[in-house]
Amino acid sequence: MAGWRQRWQEGNTPWNLGQAAPELATVLSSWRPVGRALVPGCGHGHEVSLLQDLGWDVVGLDVAPEALAAARQRDPRPHWHCGDVLNPPLVWQGTFALVLEHTCFCALPPRCRQTYAQAVTNLLESGGTFLGLFWCHSRADGPPFGSTPQDLKRCFGSALRLINLQEARHSVEDRCGEEWLGHWQKP
């Protein structure tokens, strides 16, 4: 956690696109808001603001208070919560219609991935959706830690039903060919 706080304090946030990820913006613009949404590891909160604009009741979650301060200054409308997605508030269990993933999974060491998948599953209501834009690359170190489509299927497939997993079509230039869009549903 201290490492993320230091990066925010130094303004060292190269993952920030300055906007919501184009792939997520494209997909979500055609969805009808159906309730409460969570964006774990929200950082500057661009996806949080996108969901807010689309009519969702959205919560942005991050471990770094500095990230949330920047997000709140940029957009005061959504709910912002400082905390760890691997240990979320118990009252959140089963209360989200959507968990939106973008750059949280790849920020976690691979040893934490199953814990993350379990947390996401627990946070979703029955029938809820897990939508993620994942960095699938083969570089040895991280963050961002890479994964493969097969890794994603294994990680989330035990508790969630895979709807679709495909290479992103609307990535920013320096991420083309490395982003995959995954869509799962909790039974």
From TrEMBL:
GO terms for molecular function: S-adenosylmethionine-dependent methyltransferase activity. It comes from the Bacteria. Transmembrane segments: none annotated. The keyword S-adenosyl-L-methionine applies. One of its GO terms (biological process) is methylation. InterPro entries: SAM-dependent_MTases_sf, TPMT. Keywords: Methyltransferase, Phosphoprotein, S-adenosyl-L-methionine, Transferase. The keyword Transcription does not apply. PANTHER family: CYSTEINE SULFINATE DESULFINASE_CYSTEINE DESULFURASE AND RELATED ENZYMES, PTHR32183. This is Thiopurine S-methyltransferase. It comes from Candidatus Synechococcus spongiarum 142.
